[in-house]
Amino acid sequence: MRMWSWVTVAVVAALVGTSSGKVFTKCELARVLTNTYRMSRTLVKNFVCLAQYESSFNTAATNKNTNGSRDYGIFQINDKYWCQGGIRTTNYCNIQCSSLLNSNIADDVACAQRIYKQQGFKAWYAWRSHCKNMDLDRYISQCF
């Protein structure tokens, strides 16, 4: 019986630890990027498309890449260059990767904008595969 109590506590703790993430809708993210972070519509439509295909708008999303690096958060920011994960990295955004997994996307947005300024949207595979050369105006037109 005591064993089941510990298992229950462990399961509840795991669920509480993952409950701080948020899954945005397409239009909710578009409005937040526009109104809170004052992004231009050009950037908004590209970041929203990117988020859909990288994380399905899930701030708690993680992904392990074939090279051993990991991607974190709604914009799938990589720990090889941009954030500090489990391995020693360059950490250009000067943030812990774990901080990209909660519902507060301020640090995600700041880091993603830094990546965009240095490399453009081509830094993200999902953007190159799904968003580049697409009619993104129509993609978010119903959001505003």
From TrEMBL:
Pfam families in the record: Lys (PF00062)
GO terms of biological process kind: defense response to bacterium; killing of cells of another organism
Signal sequence, renumbered to the chain: 1-21
Keyword Hydrolase among UniProt keywords: yes
InterPro entries: Glyco_hydro_22, Glyco_hydro_22_CS, Glyco_hydro_22_lys, Lysozyme-like_dom_sf
Domain Glycosyl hydrolases family 22 (GH22) stretches: 93-111
Domain of life the protein comes from: Eukaryota
GO MF assignments: lysozyme activity
CDD domains listed in its UniProt record: LYZ_C_invert
SMART domains named in the record: LYZ1
Enzyme Commission number(s): 3.2.1.17
Annotated catalysed reactions: Hydrolysis of (1->4)-beta-linkages between N-acetylmuramic acid and N-acetyl-D-glucosamine residues in a peptidoglycan and between N-acetyl-D-glucosamine residues in chitodextrins
Keywords: Antimicrobial, Bacteriolytic enzyme, Disulfide bond, Glycosidase, Hydrolase, Signal
Similarity comment: Belongs to the glycosyl hydrolase 22 family.
Protein name: lysozyme
Species for this entry: Procambarus clarkii
